[in-house]
Amino acid sequence: MRRLAIDVREALSTHPTGKARWTRCFVDELLTRELPLTLLSHQPLPAAWQRPSVQSVVLPAGLRWHFSAAQWLTAHRKDITSFSPTSFIVPFMIGGNVPVIPLVHDLIAFRGEPHQKKAQIIERLTLRRALSAACHVCAISEATRHDLLNRYRFLPEENVSVIFAGPYRASAPLATPDGRTILSIGTLCPRKNQLRLIQAFALLPEALRQRTQLVIAGGRGWSDREIIRSARETPGVTWRGYVSDAEYEELLSHATVFALPSLYEGFGMPVLDALQRGVPVLTSRRGSLSEVAGDAALFADPEDSADLSRGLQTLLTDDSLRARLRTLGPQQANTFSWKRTVDLFLSGVQGCL
What we know:
The chain is an alpha/beta fold. It folds into two domains: 180 residues, Rossmann fold (3-Layer(aba) Sandwich); 153 residues, 3-Layer(aba) Sandwich (Rossmann fold), CATH 3.40.50. Helix content is 41%, strand content 16%. It contains 14 helices and 13 strands. A seven-stranded parallel sheet has the order 3-2-1-4-5-6-7, sandwiched between helices. A six-stranded parallel sheet has the order 10-9-8-11-12-13, sandwiched between helices. α11 links the parallel β12 and β13. α1 crosses α14, α6 crosses α12 and α10 crosses α13. The radius of gyration is 21 Å and the shape is elongated. The model has no long low-confidence stretch (mean pLDDT 96).
């Protein structure tokens, strides 16, 4: 069996976001399978990942990392398969020489919504070659798989597997709602749609708005100045910035409503975490969100602040709906797990190992 080499740089970040959290949870579960792994990074592995079956390869940080990783993988190509869960640069460089499995989270870089320019340029330059040279391709959701097959018609359908994600915690207690907090978690950017969410909050009836707060948690992203200005100037809205794992858990454990009305998502892990805790969710049907939330959330038009506001008002005032979603949410979340993700991954890529 070939060793599976994984780029884990982002998973070791001190401020992990979506892709980093996905990689961290994936590796945690994969380690339970006792497979021969090589974990490539720019820093030492955490103690929990240091095992007899794990080889650690530490390479120079920065731009040099990609060239060093490509060189190392090529030198060991006879017994290595490379899995790249966060970047297409190394697959772009080594494709055809080394068996490569890229994971595609989304195709945001190819859509009309504003996106981080550097990431957009890199993905547009590297993705096609990374896919064409891959021995197998993984997608994080059915929505992403659909987008991939529509855009890259050369991909055989049987060569693209959906592997999903799981809740950040394997289990979590039901939330104890405080009766006043609308929570939204995500990097500040136009795609996450925090600006319209703030506008929707401001449109709530005054009496309801006076006894409610909107808490936005997430680090700065791109094109976010107007979001920050609006958050600071709108009464009842608080921007917490990036939050630690402990703060993330604390916020979810007391939220009354969770709102993520994104314009597009490849998956939407915070939605899954809210569902797991029985927090009623307001979201959109864009990208993968309806696939993740199923029938356990309330949906609204993400480009209509008034519709978002009506959704917030419904969740805040309809006790029976909140009770129903509190039951349905954990049931829906239980259909996803990291065990399932790793099982699907290993099943899909067995011909590459």
